[in-house]
Amino acid sequence: MLKFRKGLADMPPYLPDVEKDWEIKANANEAALNLPPLVAERVMARLSRVAFHRYPGEEPELLREQIARSYQLKPENVCLGNGSSEIIEKLFFAFGGKGHSILYPEPSFSMYKIYAKAAEAEGIPFPLGEDYQLDGDAFIALAKEKKVALAVICNPNNPTGNYLPLEEVEAIAARLDCPLLVDEAYIEFSGGSASCLLAKYSNLIVARTFSKAYGLAACRVGYMLADAGIAVMVNRSYMPYHLNVLSAATADIVYQMRDEYGPRIDMAVAERQRMFTRLQEIPGLKVFPSAANFLLLYSAQAAALHEALAARGIGVRSFGAEGRLAGCLRLSMGTREENDAVFQAIKAWGK
Ligand SMILES: *Cc1c(COP(=O)(O)O)cnc(C)c1O
Known about the structure:
Layout: E1 24-26, H1 37-47, H2 58-70, E2 78-81, H3 83-95, E3 101-106, H4 111-118, E4 122-127, H5 136-145, E5 150-154, H6 166-175, E6 180-183, E7 204-209, E8 222-225, H7 228-236, H8 245-256, H9 262-279, E9 286-287, E10 294-298, H10 302-311, E11 314-318, E12 328-332, H11 336-350
Helix pairs in contact: 1-8, 2-8, 3-4, 5-6, 9-11
The structure holds pyridoxal-5'-phosphate.
């Protein structure tokens, strides 16, 4: 008899689509390109000097200080994590527990619900509007009514692509009487980060990641910016040395050289606009406007389209036939050539 933790068997697993070796992998919002050559050179040189026999020492600390400086904050305001996933999970842990509730938009990042459950908090989904827009007044009202311990918004929202203007994020932060996490995993593609508001609102928490715009998904590095009183509690929930030296040193160099990524981010944005326009010409396909590096598509025959693309070696994310995202597919932007191939495949299928 295996006495597993109560509720664990009901936790939905996160099932990354790893079985298939996609020719075009457009299902996880990853960056289209590997490290820029100049960055790769410096990363490899740096990794060759790592003291593999020592626990992480200065590398995570240097990264933390560098990030703090770039936002004119103190290191005490920065938490690093194994992807922003680890940070969000620990933040939910820090504000969760029996009798506490956490508010997050629906549909949004599927992990919020799972982290809320893992933290033994009550997860409260806030329904987004018709075209997935977020009604700030209603969001605040529900947060107050339910006396939530933490409210979350995802900006731009995954998987719908909506961007909430900074003034609206500010209005929410100002009027909530609880902490507000703004998950900015895709903010490089939209601009308008809430990080400039941190000095003004001590309840504001911003989560960022190296996995998307900075193409470092393999390393699992993210960070959170918050009031020191919040950051200290999140840091308390980590195990010792949670961020490994290889990832920390790599992210440290990537962050130093982040200007190298400007042209790539611009390309992803331009490709998103180009594909948005082109895909709209396809009959029966609804394309949602997006501020991120992906597009959300709706088709009454989404399952068949998903399959037709898979048959051509193109992997996109499907959201099944149930719920608010029924009939929706999410297409991550690749290189121009990859996007052209995806467009041709969708067009050929549509005929
Ligand atoms: C990808 C993603 C993250 C986290 O990714 P990490 O690789 O763990 O940093 C967080 N939030 C959203 C909405 C995402 O799409």
